[in-house]
Design brief:
The protein is mostly beta strands. Helix content is about 15%, strand content about 40%. It contains three helices and twelve strands. The structure holds flavin mononucleotide (FMN).
């Protein structure tokens, strides 16, 4: 393999490469607007969920999606053990759902699944979220170790789309796309 063929990863970067400061990186990332999604998984009948801004569409052939999950989160361990996860891209009227599954509810209990309607898909399947702009189920295809996070890539096994404006997150604020210029 030539040097050019080698793709750099966090484990292959030479020691003499000087990275940016963590604070500068986090300041920059505040400016990166993201979709807001809730990911779900089920381990021995126990449902778990987490709000993430890291959902990405990866591939159409075959259909693949990815999310990044902090290794310290209970969700990371649960997703590794279940091998399956749901991705629910929230609509613009669902910021309260985002806060519930980010552990900071505006009212009620954190991580309370009754904050939104779920559509049962049968035994062993991840429920889909009513009112979400996209709601999908994935079989974990690969897990990539990436610094503080794990990147889960999933093959999409079920999907529902609703024509809704998505909820966005930017500079610690929720918002939505507008056609007003
Ligand atoms: C808008 C938003 C986006 C987030 N994105 C991610 C993410 O991509 N990955 C992640 O692990 N945590 C993300 N978080 C943080 C988790 O939702 C939050 O830390 C979590 O509820 C803590 O759960 P734990 O008790 O399982 O650690 C995000 C939070 C918010 C509000």
């Amino acid at each position: 393999m030539t040097k050019q063929d080698q793709s750099p990863t966090s484990s292959t970067l030479p020691n003499d490469v000087v990275g940016v400061r963590r604070e500068d990186f986090l300041l920059a990332m505040k400016q990166a607007a993201s979709l807001v999604s809730v990911i779900t998984t089920t381990v021995t009948d126990r449902r778990m969920a987490l709000t993430v801004g890291s959902f990405l569409s990866v591939s159409a052939d075959p259909p693949l999606m990815s999310v990044c999950v902090n290794k310290k989160s209970r969700m990371c361990k649960a997703m590794k053990s279940s091998g399956k996860f749901g991705v629910h891209v929230l609509a613009d009227n669902q910021s309260e759902v985002a806060d519930v599954f980010a552990g900071r509810p505006q009212t009620g209990d954190a991580y309370d699944f009754s904050c939104v309607e779920w559509l049962d898909q049968g035994a062993g399947r991840e429920s889909l979220m009513d009112g979400a702009s996209i709601s999908a189920e994935c079989e974990t295809e690969s897990i990539i170790d990436a610094g503080s996070h794990c990147i889960f890539i999933g093959a999409v096994t079920n999907i529902k789309t609703e024509e809704k404006r998505p909820l966005l997150y930017w500079n610690r604020l929720y918002g939505f796309p507008s056609s007003d210029l």
